[in-house]
Here is the input.
Amino acid sequence: MTLPALLASAEIPPFQGVHAATSAPELSWSGLLLLLPLASMVLCALMAMSRTRTKLPAIVTSVSFLGMFVTVLGLAFRVGDTPVVVHLFEWINFGWTAATPGPERAGEELWRSITANVGFYVDSLTIFWMLFVTGLGTLIAVYASEYMEQDRGVSYSRFFFGMSLFLLSMSALVMADNLVLLYLGWEGVGLASYLLIGYYYKKPAAVAAAKKAFIMNRIGDAGLALGIFLTWVNYGTVEYAPLFAALSDPPSGSGSWIPAAIPFCLMLGAFGKSAQGPLFTWLPDAMEGPTPVSALIHAATMVTAGVYLIARTFPLFAAHPDSLEVVAWIGGGTAFLAATIALAQHDIKRVFAYSTLSQLGYMFLGLGAVSTFGAAYHVFTHAFFKAALFLTAGAVMHGFAGQLDLRKLSGLRHLPGWKIVSWAMFVGCLWLSAFPFTSANFSKDAILEAAFIMDTPSYRFLGWLGLFTAALTAYYSFRVWFRVCCGPVSYSPGEEDHGSDDHHGHDHGSPGGAVRDHAHEPATSAHHGDGHGGGFHPHAPRLAMNLPIILIALGAVLSGIPAYQKLAGGENWAQQMVLHSSAYQGSAMPLAHGDAAVEHVAHPTVLGMNPHLAMMVIGGVAGVLGIAIAWWFHLANRQAAANLRSSLLASPATRWLPILLERKWFVDEIYHAIFGVPAWIASHLLHWFDRHVIDGLLVNGVGRIPPFLGRVFQPLYSGRLQGYAVTMSISVGVILLWALWAWIVGEAPR
Amino acid sequence: MTAPALASAPELAASLPALPSAVGVVLLVSAILMAIGLIGFLVRRNMILMFLSTELMFQAAALAFVAFGRMHLDLSGQVFVIFILTVAAAEAALALALVVLLYRRRETLSADAWAELHE
Here is the structure.
């Protein structure tokens, strides 16, 4: 059943429009969400100038993030079902008269205006998003205080400056009451992402990755900007409240292309920021940044901004359901593609990066299948388990001198001091593989069942693709865990000096360490810092890293509460939060009304079961199957994986498979061939043209005319008076002859 | 013979058949003078002679003024000649003084002595 048909079917009450927003000046204290990160940004800059070597920047940043979290909690208790607009201060606000377009109303003047203030549009979707953004931001800032400790000094302040800038921009993006402020935040998170990916700016790979991320994002941002322009052109406003009010009226039936183009433009922006479809290649490279950045920005929060954008402007999309099908296809395709690439990567962070891509693909599939709840809930659960995975990967990297190759690490579970990391990673992997009764299982199933409920061949295909991808996900995530945390203990250190004992020996002796809490160090890490004769000693994470890891893993477990409430017959508060927002319209679908609606709407079935049950069963089986295969190849019989690879490579019929996966489907190479090589050729041609035509012919050519003329006429200037006289007489003679000729010609016709 | 009726200048000029040939003769003399002066200026190296040649060309121009003034029955041509003579006198004094100064520098009147002044 297609979306228009579903929306039209009698069982579903027609969309009543987003609740009209009310103004709430008494909530202006929520401006703290911008002020706190701004303050910590300024303080970090000042601390960078004073070259402090303490952990003060981390403390300031963590406290301000915690303050933001408390502010959001406060807002959560004050804001009910009705969205609230909190006006903070004026930003862009002006109007003008313009000539009316079209001949029928020629001569009339039209009052146009654009209003984009710094204000917050607070509804449950906003709060839902800000809760995990600020909560995870706080925990990851605490984690980073230890992770980044060997950089203490200007770089340390610079890092936390970037984190503060990120949270400032992210809260502007999420809280904004208009699309222009959202765009400001959107660019701000892009800038923070660029600065933090390129944090190790002396490393060419990091600089290249930062540039790549920035440039790829520009493509998407151009789409977003166009979308905002078109929104203003079509609806005359960029503020959410009037925009949603305009959209809840039935469409006026004008056949303009503009409203149909808006969702596609906004979609391009979302794909750029969330690394979907053709714009995905920047995200895996972004892992060059420090791991807390990967965890916060490139896994949990920033990359979900695209999902937020679509959920927030969902009425615009729902007005043109074709766009949602495109979103679904791009999302489902990316989910599958990224999962297959993740199968064959050896770098732990890269596996997780591709899994992020894959999970983001699920979220877009959910949006496309008109399950904004599924998408938003998956963002929520994913934020926790993926942050946990990255933080544990960071702990491994920190402890093993940058070692991230899963072939060179084994049995971490049995090392002293690594239990927390191992089990947090286990939780992360279990949740990532959507094991039955984990929160990710519920959120992913909500997405997949929505795809099956749509019940068109294309959505059904996407649903099956998503289920297959779920099995792949389970396999590659447990491949990491079985390799790194299980089996016999063996490890070799990485080559980077990041986190090496040399640095630490120095740092431990430095007086600046006063801020750090030595008393809380686990005894197992006591050996590092003193002389380290021959062997490499991994140093286990201490409290500042372990505590956030534990809390985030706990958060991943607890993120299932809404779903458990639902199972227990209660209300799913996450679902209620998403549905009581502008994302409601999409969920005017059966999901919004639970099982009752599903039963009334012409029962789409999957293998004879209703979609809920089918997803539980098939999804669960897929997850367990994936884990079992991973167990066989990567724990029980590790040689089998290598054997399988070499036998695949040996046969010409199958050798493309491992090569294609290990080389990431050659996407980077294809882009290089399609865009890089022509650009290289064109730039060299243009360089040649510039050098020889513009510079050579035009600039220097014009410059050569005077000397040339000089050389031609120079003999005339012999200095001999008679010579000059001859020249003059000949010239006069020529002029006379010309006058004579003109006189004859002019006279002739008479 | 009664006096001819007053006529405008162009009509009067058109009614005088003898004039074009007379003006033509004067202009011819003027052209010959100009040619002699020019050739003299070009072929002689002596600065005094060259100066005299320019004076000759001056007079050719003055003669042409007179001729055209006569042709148009306009006295401006002759008035111009008076001015030309005056200016020519002043200029002659100046030019001869320059020639004297140049001669003192190089002990020669040849214009070629000053050829290196180019560029």
In short: The first helix of chain A runs from residue 3 to 8. Residues 663-714 of chain A form one domain. Chain A touches chain B at residues 714, 717-722, 725-726, 729 (CB under 8 Å).
